[in-house]
Amino acid sequence: MTGNLEYKKDLVVEPHSASHLVSAQPTQKLGLQVAISLVLAYVLLGWLGLSLAIPPGFASPVFPAAGLALAACHYYGPRALPLIWLGSFFLNTAVSISHGTFSSLSIIVAAVIALGAILQAWLGQLLIHRRLGVGVEHFDQEKRVVLFLLNGGVVACFLAPSIGVGILSYVGIIPVANFAYSWWNWYVGDVLGVLIAAPVAVGLFQWRIPSWRKRLNIIAGPIVGMLVIAIVTFIAAAKWEQNYQRSKLDDQAQYIAQAIDHRFISHVELLESLARLIEVSPEISGLEFEHFTQTARLTEPDFFALSFNPYILQKDRFSFEQRMGQVYPEQKFEIKERNAQRQLVRAGARAAYVPIAYISPLAQNYPALGFDIYSEPTRRNAIQRAMTSRKVAATAPIKLVQDQQQRIGVLVMAPAFERRSRAYPLQGFAVGVIQIEQMIELALKNKVAPGLEIELLDLSAPPEARLLYRTNQTTSSPDLIWRQTLRLADRDWELKVLPTAAYLEQHRSWLAWTVGVFGLLFATMLQIILLGVTGRASLIERKVLEQTEEIRLAMRAAEAGNLAKSQFLATMSHEIRTPLNGILGMAQMLQMEQISEADRRDYAQTIVNSGQTLLTLLNDVLDFSKIEAGKLQLEKTTQDPARLLRDIAQLFAENATEKGLQLTAEWEGQAQFYLLDSNRIRQMLSNLVNNAIKFTPNGSVRLIGRELERQQGRATLEFSVIDTGLGLDSAQQAMLFQPFTQVDNSITRRFGGTGLGLSIVSNLAQLMGGRAGVESQPGQGARFWFCIQAELASENGQEKLNAIQTAPEQTLQGKILVVEDNPVNQKVVQALLAKLGLSCQLASNGQEGVEAVMRDPSIELVLMDVHMPLLDGREATKKIRTWEIQFKQKPRVIIALTADAFEADHQLCLEAGMNDFLTKPLNFETLKRALQQWLNSSQNQPNTI
Hints:
By secondary structure, this protein is α+β, with helices and mostly antiparallel strands. The chain contains 28 helices and 27 strands.
């Protein structure tokens, strides 16, 4: 049997939102040509977003028209709001027309959705104006770009989905049960539309400004390329999902078709067996017939009745009635038919009759004895076909009058012939009355997936009488219809299998949606970086243009810096897309069938490594941003520099071994403890060692540290990395330690890198009261070094560090509460804690976290997300601290889990009463160290405060 799939798409108006802001700057003039262009651009971008929607019923992962609306309102002010309304209204009206559902109701729905778009735009402009004020349109700092997108996108974009999904649910286009899912897809589509399209659109509106033209020329290529990669990957994943859903539905539908077909065939075989029995035993008695059919009905309970109906000619009628009267002496047996009032009366004269001679079960069907089924048109049609074909025939659907519910059934007739040969005259028919609903229930045996509707039609019957069976489920119209034609006896039955909205929801895969969202988020990250970097360059240019003739030398330096930054941007684009290609490529490989466990692990490891590369890249950019802004703070603790050197050597030992290099670490002189920022020194040494291994084809790499001099409790420390690599000439050395520069682009292509590493080393060395440098000659290797100032540690500090370093690792114990609203982050934290042998309790928002702490005094440590609905992490911490003081409870250790990378955000966490903070994405060792510190300390705290 073969089936086909028919797809339908009902009108579902997708997310159409607009977030806009009104800046404090004077708004631009809005002419007729610009107004028309803005409306058309909104419609086209909206249509593009809808074209990415995944059938059946999936929303688009991005709606760029929302970003355009944000940019238009920012640049043109409130006068853009009516244009946004028109664009949204025309778009949704066009959608209803294209789906054939245009009506007065669709016009009202489109108008309400457009109203939601402009209300969301007004809210977006209010939030951004209050938060950022004037000058945000320059996008000259990463932080300002992020705040722009957070306020205009993440925060403001809840309004249009609430209004849009609300009206669509109210009029019945979206089922109420799907409200939350539809709202979430609408919200995410609007947010990603703002993240992707708003900054670029702001730049396009300012195309006439030379600085913006230059910036757009720089960022257009990488951003468009990244978007193309994300969209192509999304479409590929969506196609896979559609094929997967088709396959699942086809498997279920084929099972249903085969089960019904096999069930009916077994009925036909039973009737043919009964007909053969009658052929070999033409004088079969009523008791023998009852005995045989009783056994048959036990095995086939969906037979409502089984009968033998002999073929009687008019001349044999009297003798037949006499003979059957002897079989049933308790009543007068005669051949009967129904009159106009549906009453059984003696049959009129006709050429032939097919009366019921024997029927089982007899008790329930006794009045039917003698009824001539040849007298009824539907049955007569089947009899004539069976007589012509001399094969089994079935009637069109009929209502079973014997059944109190008058359900649908069919009569199946197997002809019986004299002398066991079909070449001989017709003897009669073995007739089975099949109750269709019971037949299907017995065939399927409750093995069909929930949420599938089944419809069975007799294509040979008149249109008004074709229905054989239909499930009665109160669900929305499905998007997929599976059809199959079944040849049952001599009739064509059409089987339809319709997946309901509940079925589609249960079997929906989030793979394509997730791939699309993550791809667009990567594109957003690239856009933020590029806008921030080019914005800084643009800011420098604006300031230079405002200076007098005496600043021309500074302007030339700025232009040189811009060239270096342009090269950096190209490198950055390459460095981001390379690991992203690894992530997307390996993710697609994981989707493929028949891959080995070793390959699966290899692909997963590649994804992890590529993600770490992206994270390192972002951390470098953020560190450089903090250094430039003067906000990088050092955290000094008692440290042993010899141990730091050994740790770095151990960290890079595998990389060196893979290249056949000898890697050694040495502290010259007597061991001493100092007050150092160990994390930053590790970062500096890691940069130098990584470069040394990268540019050393053979030989060795040595780490050397020493104390140069000491006076008044302070010492000058020198750390150096010596390699036997390629070496550098004087011109190349002059370019080192400058941001956004690399000595050789060809080397960069071979080994990678962004040009920020040595600049960060130099800046950190200056922050620590020292400097950095290089000594090298071409072909003779290089010695990179930096000096820092360090305070000598006290004896107590040395003893404490010795105790920490020599103390055995303690088993972690204690009850932990994880307050995190994101399900994925919950799984990550749970898994990391489980790896440490710890279990945890979960809370999905700050309010639940506060209640859990108040309810359970055994909770010792709380991992608190910062940004959550209902109550954020900082406010939740304040409530917990207030409660602890009021009721004299033992203070819980509260550690922030935050994706905020700025020191000011971390300070806010500490001011709210948190003990510590961990930055997302979480590192296993960092989490382990924090828990070792705070769980042990919390167990020693007093029980009251």
